[in-house]
Amino acid sequence: MRVLVVQHDHVSPPGPVGERFADRGYEPVAHPVVPEELFHAPNVAVSFPDPADYDAVVAMGAPWSVYDQEMIGEWVGPELAFLRQAHRAGVPVLGICFGGQLLAQAHGGTVTRSSTPELGWCAVESDDEALVPGGPWFAWHYDGWTLPPDAVEVARNAAASQAFVLGRNLAVQFHPELGSAMLDGWLRNGGDRLAVEFGLDPGRLLEQTRERDEEGRRRAHRLVDAFLDRVAARPAALSARADVATDTPARYAKQLVSHLGRKLAFTTDGPTSTARLGGGTARIVVGDGILTLLAEAPDTEDLERVKDVLGRHLERFGARNELAVTWTAG
User: What are phi and psi of 227, to 5 degrees?
Assistant: First the structure.
């Protein structure tokens, strides 16, 4: 078995998270995004592999913002598409901090600047201690997510939503992989200045983390075990897609979202609009000469309902141009 570790920068290795995957029989395969020499100019072109070639994916943290197109626009869009593809293929994904925010954005949530950023050891309250243990976790984030339509929040604190599950995806806002060696790398790459601006003593922060290294390692192992045993082991959702050729995909997408939006709460991220529809999820994606309809649900009945609503309305709007919707699995 192989787990793809999407490592966004050179100072964010998987640490005890990767170690535990290896203990469980997974071969960690690193997929670097921004090389060390371009850390201060990270808008690089990156291709992502087929997620179906792996048994799990870990999307690591990063010092940038999901929404900062000027800084990382070259690769954040392709990574969001990669995560959606992994979800459709039933490949489990563990998203850590920035990686968790990517999962939120990819599946219909949003990511924005937080009014309550966190830096340092923070208390987390959990609804499910066996899945995401509560207590102190290390946090370093200035952004926060809103939950995707299908997500179930499992942990939080006063500052932010801290964890959610969506199908075979688990997103955490904190850093279970962090130990003192990793934090030292962050501090040496400009983090010391940010810590001081936050009112923290970098030396003391490093000392506190060093004191918690062994406990943090055990807690990271517990989190990975729970992800593999309870999230990755879930049955994969059923899905279907229809690629409809048209010269005006944006116009039809706008019609669908406007009409269906009278009863459904759509969120739009670039070319993709997402809404919860009954027990399933509907996605409308604008492409180049193609309008793609995506349906997903836990069972056949809900899947057929999503397909019917999307397909029937598009065919009605496109009757003059004889648009036809043909669904395929996956």
Answer: -60, -45
Predicted confidence at residue 314, as pLDDT, reads: 95
3-class SS of residue 163: strand
Q: What does the pLDDT look like over 6-15, one tens digit per residue?
A: 999 999 999 9
Cα 212 to Cα 140, 180, 186: the distances in Å are 16, 8, 17
Let me know how long the chain is: 330
* Digit-coded pLDDT (tens) for 186-238: 999 888 998 899 999 999 999 999 999 999 999 999 999 999 999 999 988 88
Q: What is the largest CA-CA distance in the chain?
A: 69
Contact indicator for 109, 147 with CB cutoff of 8 Å: yes
Q: Quick count: other Cβ atoms within 10 Å of Cβ 210?
A: 14
* C-alpha–C-alpha distance, residues 68 and 270, integer Å: 13
Q: Please choose, from the candidates 128, 126, 144, 146, the residue with its C-alpha nearest in 3D space to the C-alpha of residue 136.
A: 126
Please determine, for residue 270, whether its predicted confidence score (pLDDT) is greater than 90: no
d(CA 151, CA 158): 19
Please identify which residue in the block is written with the tokens 């999503």: 306
